[in-house]
Task: inverse folding
């Protein structure tokens, strides 16, 4: 397995739809180019921000293929931007199925949310990731997001998975707990695996996490401001926290307003106001409320994005 190191500024991109609900692959190409021009280090496609739960198999493959095609032909980057596909499921067989589709579509790595609803034990989680790794032999990022799965994965279990499943190279930590993230970082720095990275799953915690040893963020706000967010992360990774803080506070209002309603409703609203995509979501997500759209528009105007 090519053990790619995923780090830095990594947008979890939205999936653009046309007004009739069909995929808008031209808008997707436009969005991917915007991210690469902004200096991102990798791209996550078909994650929760990408409304993956509403994509059928053919659409899932199409969005990954589209992103892969754009990054392969992009002329201004010496190194191709890796593509990470969301492939998670609460059924291990389905997770393997999606992973195989992602690999066939050209993905470089996989993002696997920890199984929701079933509430597996630590042993079950380890076996879940072992089975995926055995079937695919690809780099895997664990996605711990208790707010969506209903259960938190402890630092001890995260580290255990990293040690027993070498294909697992990072965790996207969206527990909201810096203490939990510090536990993971401290343990792997002391006792390994030393090439296991902790990435923030919350934009507002990306800078604090990097300051304690995190390696970047899988981000929502990067959809709208890839250049500013990438610069912030790169300043922080270089230890220039003065400049990183300036950018953090500059885009913090946008980070906040992106969650005034369920993600990705606000970020899709913002991208539509910016002229990058059409404002279209799939049920059960609906268009943003008028009062919240005013808030999104105000923040975009303050940042001179519209």
Result:
């Amino acid at each position: 397995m090519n053990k790619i190191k995923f780090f830095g500024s990594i947008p979890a991109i939205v999936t653009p739809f046309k007004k009739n609900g069909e995929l808008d692959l031209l808008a997707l190409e436009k969005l991917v180019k915007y991210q690469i021009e902004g200096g991102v280090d990798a791209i996550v496609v078909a994650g929760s921000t990408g409304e993956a739960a509403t994509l059928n198999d053919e659409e899932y493959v199409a969005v990954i293929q589209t992103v892969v095609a754009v990054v392969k032909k992009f002329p201004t980057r010496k190194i191709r931007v890796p593509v990470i596909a969301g492939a998670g499921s609460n059924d291990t067989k389905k997770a393997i199925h999606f992973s195989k589709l992602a690999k066939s579509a050209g993905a470089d790595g996989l993002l696997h949310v920890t199984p929701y609803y079933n509430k597996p034990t630590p042993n079950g989680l380890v076996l879940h990731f072992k089975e995926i790794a055995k079937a695919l032999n690809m780099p895997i990022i664990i996605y711990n997001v208790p707010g969506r799965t209903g259960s938190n994965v402890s630092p001890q279990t995260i580290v255990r998975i990293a040690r027993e499943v070498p294909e697992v190279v990072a965790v996207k930590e969206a527990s909201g707990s810096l203490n939990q993230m510090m536990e993971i970082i401290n343990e792997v720095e002391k006792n390994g695996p030393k090439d296991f990275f902790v990435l923030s799953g919350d934009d507002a915690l990306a800078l604090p996490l990097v300051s304690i040893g995190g390696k970047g963020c899988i981000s929502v706000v990067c959809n709208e401001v890839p250049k500013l967010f990438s610069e912030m992360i790169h300043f922080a990774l270089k230890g220039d926290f003065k400049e990183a803080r300036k950018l953090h506070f500059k885009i913090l209002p946008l980070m906040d307003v992106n969650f005034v309603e369920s993600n990705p409703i606000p970020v899709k609203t913002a991208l539509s106001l910016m002229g990058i995509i059409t404002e279209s979501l799939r049920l059960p997500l609906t268009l943003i409320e008028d009062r919240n759209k005013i808030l999104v528009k105000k923040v975009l105007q303050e940042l001179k994005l519209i």
